[in-house]
Amino acid sequence: MSDTDTRRTYRVGILRTEFIEFTIEADSPEDAEARYLMDGIEVGSETDSTSVESVTLDQQ
Question: What is the DSSP string of 28-40?
Fold first, then answer.
């Protein structure tokens, strides 16, 4: 019996924090905040940090 025959499947949950910038034409800062996802153009992103939040046995 090989090692892979005894292995189980796990789900690993990762928390990733990102900083994403958008450009958008808007009437005010509040207007830009309300519409950035619909009408904005993503111009940059950077992963700030990652960490393992959970590891559980997969119950499929």
Answer: SHHHHHHHHHHH-
